[in-house]
Write a structure and sequence with these properties.
The structure holds two protein chains of two kinds.
Chain A (H helix, E strand, L loop, with lengths): L8 H12 L5 H13 L1 H17 L9 H17 L1
Chain B lengths: L4 H9 L3 H22 L3 H18 L9 H19 L6 H5 L34 H4 L2 H12 L3 H12 L4 H8 L3 H23 L1
Helix pairs in contact in B: 2-3, 2-4, 2-8, 3-4, 4-9, 7-10, 8-10
Classes of the chains: A mainly alpha, B mainly alpha.
Chain lengths: 83, 204
Protein backbone atom coordinates (compact mmCIF):
# COMPACT_ATOMS: atom_id res chain seq x y z
CA UNK A 1 0.00 0.00 0.00
CA UNK A 2 1.10 3.48 -0.77
CA UNK A 3 1.00 6.21 1.83
CA UNK A 4 -1.59 8.38 0.12
CA UNK A 5 -0.64 11.44 2.17
CA UNK A 6 2.91 11.56 0.93
CA UNK A 7 3.28 10.23 -2.58
CA UNK A 8 6.87 10.64 -3.81
CA UNK A 9 7.76 11.34 -7.46
CA UNK A 10 9.24 7.86 -7.72
CA UNK A 11 5.99 6.33 -6.49
CA UNK A 12 3.90 8.56 -8.70
CA UNK A 13 5.54 7.52 -11.98
CA UNK A 14 4.58 3.90 -11.21
CA UNK A 15 0.93 4.93 -10.88
CA UNK A 16 0.63 6.87 -14.14
CA UNK A 17 -0.91 4.02 -16.16
CA UNK A 18 -3.36 3.13 -13.39
CA UNK A 19 -4.25 6.83 -13.24
CA UNK A 20 -4.85 7.07 -17.00
CA UNK A 21 -6.83 3.80 -16.89
CA UNK A 22 -8.91 5.16 -14.00
CA UNK A 23 -7.93 2.16 -11.90
CA UNK A 24 -6.78 4.01 -8.76
CA UNK A 25 -8.82 3.95 -5.57
CA UNK A 26 -10.29 7.27 -4.47
CA UNK A 27 -7.65 8.05 -1.82
CA UNK A 28 -4.71 7.27 -4.09
CA UNK A 29 -6.24 9.23 -6.94
CA UNK A 30 -6.66 12.24 -4.67
CA UNK A 31 -3.04 11.94 -3.54
CA UNK A 32 -1.97 11.67 -7.17
CA UNK A 33 -3.89 14.83 -8.10
CA UNK A 34 -2.46 16.71 -5.10
CA UNK A 35 1.08 15.71 -5.98
CA UNK A 36 0.65 16.68 -9.65
CA UNK A 37 -0.79 20.06 -8.67
CA UNK A 38 2.43 20.92 -6.82
CA UNK A 39 5.06 19.16 -8.94
CA UNK A 40 5.99 20.53 -12.41
CA UNK A 41 8.36 17.61 -13.08
CA UNK A 42 5.68 14.97 -12.55
CA UNK A 43 3.18 17.11 -14.47
CA UNK A 44 5.61 17.06 -17.36
CA UNK A 45 6.05 13.27 -17.04
CA UNK A 46 2.28 12.68 -17.06
CA UNK A 47 1.78 14.99 -20.05
CA UNK A 48 4.53 13.18 -21.96
CA UNK A 49 2.89 9.82 -21.36
CA UNK A 50 -0.46 11.15 -22.58
CA UNK A 51 1.17 12.48 -25.76
CA UNK A 52 3.07 9.24 -26.31
CA UNK A 53 -0.23 7.34 -26.26
CA UNK A 54 -1.53 9.73 -28.94
CA UNK A 55 1.67 9.46 -31.00
CA UNK A 56 1.73 5.64 -30.77
CA UNK A 57 -1.88 5.63 -31.97
CA UNK A 58 -0.72 7.18 -35.23
CA UNK A 59 1.36 4.14 -36.18
CA UNK A 60 -0.31 2.18 -38.93
CA UNK A 61 -1.57 -1.35 -38.48
CA UNK A 62 0.06 -3.99 -40.70
CA UNK A 63 -1.71 -4.80 -43.94
CA UNK A 64 -2.54 -8.24 -45.19
CA UNK A 65 -0.55 -9.07 -48.34
CA UNK A 66 -2.68 -9.69 -51.46
CA UNK A 67 -1.10 -13.16 -51.79
CA UNK A 68 -2.04 -14.15 -48.24
CA UNK A 69 -5.57 -12.83 -48.72
CA UNK A 70 -5.93 -14.76 -51.97
CA UNK A 71 -4.73 -17.98 -50.28
CA UNK A 72 -7.29 -17.52 -47.50
CA UNK A 73 -10.12 -16.86 -49.93
CA UNK A 74 -9.18 -20.04 -51.80
CA UNK A 75 -9.29 -21.92 -48.52
CA UNK A 76 -12.67 -20.38 -47.76
CA UNK A 77 -14.07 -21.58 -51.10
CA UNK A 78 -12.68 -25.05 -50.46
CA UNK A 79 -14.31 -25.06 -47.04
CA UNK A 80 -17.65 -23.81 -48.43
CA UNK A 81 -17.72 -26.59 -51.00
CA UNK A 82 -16.84 -29.31 -48.50
CA UNK A 83 -19.35 -28.33 -45.80
CA UNK B 1 -19.16 -3.31 -39.05
CA UNK B 2 -22.16 -3.34 -36.79
CA UNK B 3 -23.27 -6.92 -37.27
CA UNK B 4 -23.68 -9.25 -34.32
CA UNK B 5 -21.58 -12.38 -33.90
CA UNK B 6 -24.63 -14.50 -34.77
CA UNK B 7 -25.04 -12.64 -38.05
CA UNK B 8 -21.35 -12.93 -38.86
CA UNK B 9 -21.24 -16.65 -38.13
CA UNK B 10 -24.42 -17.25 -40.12
CA UNK B 11 -22.93 -15.36 -43.09
CA UNK B 12 -19.72 -17.39 -42.91
CA UNK B 13 -21.60 -20.67 -42.68
CA UNK B 14 -23.62 -19.60 -45.71
CA UNK B 15 -20.34 -19.16 -47.61
CA UNK B 16 -20.44 -15.35 -47.84
CA UNK B 17 -17.01 -14.44 -49.17
CA UNK B 18 -17.36 -10.70 -48.50
CA UNK B 19 -17.86 -11.32 -44.78
CA UNK B 20 -14.87 -13.62 -44.61
CA UNK B 21 -12.70 -11.14 -46.47
CA UNK B 22 -13.83 -8.32 -44.18
CA UNK B 23 -12.93 -10.24 -41.00
CA UNK B 24 -9.63 -11.46 -42.40
CA UNK B 25 -8.66 -7.88 -43.23
CA UNK B 26 -9.93 -6.24 -40.09
CA UNK B 27 -8.30 -8.68 -37.71
CA UNK B 28 -5.11 -9.30 -39.64
CA UNK B 29 -2.99 -6.69 -37.89
CA UNK B 30 -4.01 -7.59 -34.31
CA UNK B 31 -3.75 -11.33 -35.07
CA UNK B 32 -0.25 -10.77 -36.36
CA UNK B 33 0.71 -8.80 -33.25
CA UNK B 34 -0.50 -11.53 -30.92
CA UNK B 35 1.13 -14.25 -33.02
CA UNK B 36 4.43 -12.38 -32.69
CA UNK B 37 4.43 -13.10 -28.94
CA UNK B 38 4.99 -16.75 -29.72
CA UNK B 39 6.96 -16.69 -32.95
CA UNK B 40 10.58 -15.90 -33.75
CA UNK B 41 9.84 -13.86 -36.88
CA UNK B 42 7.15 -11.99 -38.72
CA UNK B 43 7.20 -14.60 -41.49
CA UNK B 44 6.33 -17.40 -39.05
CA UNK B 45 3.67 -15.18 -37.47
CA UNK B 46 2.07 -14.69 -40.91
CA UNK B 47 1.93 -18.45 -41.33
CA UNK B 48 0.35 -18.87 -37.91
CA UNK B 49 -2.36 -16.35 -38.84
CA UNK B 50 -3.08 -18.26 -42.04
CA UNK B 51 -3.25 -21.55 -40.17
CA UNK B 52 -5.54 -19.95 -37.59
CA UNK B 53 -8.12 -18.98 -40.20
CA UNK B 54 -8.13 -22.53 -41.56
CA UNK B 55 -8.73 -23.85 -38.05
CA UNK B 56 -11.43 -21.24 -37.46
CA UNK B 57 -13.29 -22.42 -40.55
CA UNK B 58 -12.85 -26.04 -39.50
CA UNK B 59 -14.24 -25.34 -36.03
CA UNK B 60 -16.93 -22.81 -36.96
CA UNK B 61 -19.76 -25.32 -36.62
CA UNK B 62 -18.72 -25.77 -33.01
CA UNK B 63 -18.76 -22.04 -32.15
CA UNK B 64 -21.41 -21.68 -29.45
CA UNK B 65 -21.19 -17.99 -28.67
CA UNK B 66 -20.03 -18.45 -25.08
CA UNK B 67 -17.31 -15.89 -25.82
CA UNK B 68 -17.35 -13.28 -28.56
CA UNK B 69 -16.31 -14.42 -32.01
CA UNK B 70 -13.25 -12.19 -31.73
CA UNK B 71 -12.09 -13.71 -28.43
CA UNK B 72 -12.75 -17.19 -29.81
CA UNK B 73 -10.64 -16.53 -32.91
CA UNK B 74 -7.78 -15.10 -30.82
CA UNK B 75 -7.85 -18.10 -28.50
CA UNK B 76 -7.51 -20.36 -31.54
CA UNK B 77 -4.60 -18.20 -32.71
CA UNK B 78 -2.80 -18.54 -29.38
CA UNK B 79 -3.30 -22.32 -29.37
CA UNK B 80 -2.10 -22.57 -32.96
CA UNK B 81 1.00 -20.53 -32.16
CA UNK B 82 1.78 -22.57 -29.04
CA UNK B 83 1.34 -25.88 -30.84
CA UNK B 84 3.64 -24.75 -33.59
CA UNK B 85 6.29 -23.57 -31.12
CA UNK B 86 6.16 -26.95 -29.40
CA UNK B 87 6.53 -28.75 -32.69
CA UNK B 88 9.56 -26.62 -33.50
CA UNK B 89 11.08 -27.08 -30.05
CA UNK B 90 10.93 -23.41 -29.08
CA UNK B 91 10.33 -22.33 -25.49
CA UNK B 92 7.60 -19.80 -24.82
CA UNK B 93 7.32 -16.82 -22.55
CA UNK B 94 4.24 -18.22 -20.75
CA UNK B 95 5.20 -17.15 -17.27
CA UNK B 96 6.29 -13.81 -18.64
CA UNK B 97 2.81 -13.31 -20.05
CA UNK B 98 0.91 -14.43 -16.99
CA UNK B 99 3.06 -13.26 -14.15
CA UNK B 100 4.93 -10.16 -15.26
CA UNK B 101 4.91 -8.68 -11.75
CA UNK B 102 7.28 -11.42 -10.59
CA UNK B 103 10.18 -9.54 -12.11
CA UNK B 104 10.15 -5.89 -11.01
CA UNK B 105 10.82 -3.30 -13.67
CA UNK B 106 10.76 0.38 -12.67
CA UNK B 107 9.18 2.78 -15.16
CA UNK B 108 12.03 5.23 -14.64
CA UNK B 109 15.66 4.45 -13.79
CA UNK B 110 15.92 4.59 -9.94
CA UNK B 111 19.15 6.61 -10.33
CA UNK B 112 17.03 9.54 -11.47
CA UNK B 113 15.50 9.90 -8.00
CA UNK B 114 17.09 10.94 -4.70
CA UNK B 115 18.11 7.96 -2.57
CA UNK B 116 16.04 6.89 0.49
CA UNK B 117 18.52 8.47 2.93
CA UNK B 118 18.33 11.85 1.21
CA UNK B 119 16.12 14.67 2.50
CA UNK B 120 14.32 14.62 -0.89
CA UNK B 121 14.01 10.83 -0.94
CA UNK B 122 12.01 9.66 -3.97
CA UNK B 123 12.02 13.10 -5.60
CA UNK B 124 13.46 13.64 -9.06
CA UNK B 125 17.25 14.21 -8.99
CA UNK B 126 17.32 14.11 -12.82
CA UNK B 127 13.84 15.31 -13.84
CA UNK B 128 12.22 14.24 -17.12
CA UNK B 129 13.75 16.19 -19.97
CA UNK B 130 11.63 18.35 -22.22
CA UNK B 131 10.12 16.48 -25.17
CA UNK B 132 8.71 19.22 -27.40
CA UNK B 133 5.12 18.38 -28.24
CA UNK B 134 5.41 19.23 -31.93
CA UNK B 135 8.43 16.93 -32.30
CA UNK B 136 6.79 14.15 -30.28
CA UNK B 137 3.88 14.18 -32.71
CA UNK B 138 5.97 14.81 -35.86
CA UNK B 139 5.98 12.25 -38.67
CA UNK B 140 9.73 11.66 -38.36
CA UNK B 141 9.30 10.61 -34.72
CA UNK B 142 6.96 7.82 -35.81
CA UNK B 143 9.90 5.63 -36.88
CA UNK B 144 11.50 6.05 -33.47
CA UNK B 145 8.28 4.98 -31.75
CA UNK B 146 7.85 2.06 -34.16
CA UNK B 147 11.42 0.87 -33.44
CA UNK B 148 10.94 1.28 -29.71
CA UNK B 149 7.74 -0.81 -29.85
CA UNK B 150 9.49 -3.41 -32.00
CA UNK B 151 12.33 -3.65 -29.45
CA UNK B 152 9.99 -4.41 -26.52
CA UNK B 153 9.72 -7.86 -24.93
CA UNK B 154 7.05 -9.77 -26.91
CA UNK B 155 4.33 -9.63 -24.25
CA UNK B 156 4.72 -5.87 -23.71
CA UNK B 157 4.83 -5.32 -27.45
CA UNK B 158 1.57 -7.21 -27.95
CA UNK B 159 -0.28 -5.28 -25.24
CA UNK B 160 0.85 -1.79 -26.28
CA UNK B 161 0.18 -2.62 -29.94
CA UNK B 162 -3.35 -3.81 -29.29
CA UNK B 163 -4.19 -0.99 -26.90
CA UNK B 164 -2.46 2.01 -28.40
CA UNK B 165 -2.05 1.14 -32.10
CA UNK B 166 -5.12 -1.02 -32.75
CA UNK B 167 -7.22 0.94 -30.26
CA UNK B 168 -8.61 -2.08 -28.38
CA UNK B 169 -10.17 -1.71 -24.94
CA UNK B 170 -8.44 -3.26 -21.93
CA UNK B 171 -11.20 -5.89 -21.72
CA UNK B 172 -10.68 -6.93 -25.33
CA UNK B 173 -6.95 -7.31 -24.73
CA UNK B 174 -7.48 -9.24 -21.50
CA UNK B 175 -9.87 -11.65 -23.17
CA UNK B 176 -7.80 -12.21 -26.27
CA UNK B 177 -4.60 -12.83 -24.30
CA UNK B 178 -6.23 -14.41 -21.25
CA UNK B 179 -4.57 -11.85 -18.96
CA UNK B 180 -5.70 -10.56 -15.57
CA UNK B 181 -6.69 -6.91 -15.33
CA UNK B 182 -3.61 -6.13 -13.24
CA UNK B 183 -1.20 -7.91 -15.55
CA UNK B 184 -2.64 -6.20 -18.59
CA UNK B 185 -1.96 -2.85 -16.92
CA UNK B 186 1.52 -3.85 -15.73
CA UNK B 187 2.53 -4.81 -19.27
CA UNK B 188 1.01 -1.64 -20.76
CA UNK B 189 2.70 0.50 -18.10
CA UNK B 190 6.13 -0.97 -18.75
CA UNK B 191 5.74 -0.80 -22.50
CA UNK B 192 4.76 2.88 -22.45
CA UNK B 193 7.58 3.71 -20.02
CA UNK B 194 10.12 2.05 -22.29
CA UNK B 195 8.82 3.92 -25.31
CA UNK B 196 9.06 7.17 -23.33
CA UNK B 197 12.66 6.39 -22.37
CA UNK B 198 13.53 5.76 -26.03
CA UNK B 199 11.93 9.06 -27.02
CA UNK B 200 13.76 10.92 -24.28
CA UNK B 201 17.04 9.51 -25.60
CA UNK B 202 16.14 10.55 -29.12
CA UNK B 203 14.50 13.95 -28.61
CA UNK B 204 16.10 15.47 -25.54
Amino acid sequence: MIDAEALSCQELVELVTDYLEEALDVATRAAFDRHIAGCPDCTRYLRQLELIVVATGRLTPSDLSPEAEEALLQAFHGWTRSS
Amino acid sequence: MARTDEELVAALRAGDEATFRELVREWHSPLLRVARIFTPSRAVAEEVVQETWLRVLGALDRFEGRSTLKTWVFRILVNTAKTRAQREGRTLPFSALHDPARVPEPAVDPDRFFAPEDAHAGGWSAPPRDLPEERLLAAETRDVIASAVEALPPNQRAVISLRDIEGWSSDEVRNALDLSEVNQRVLLHRARARVRAALEDYLA
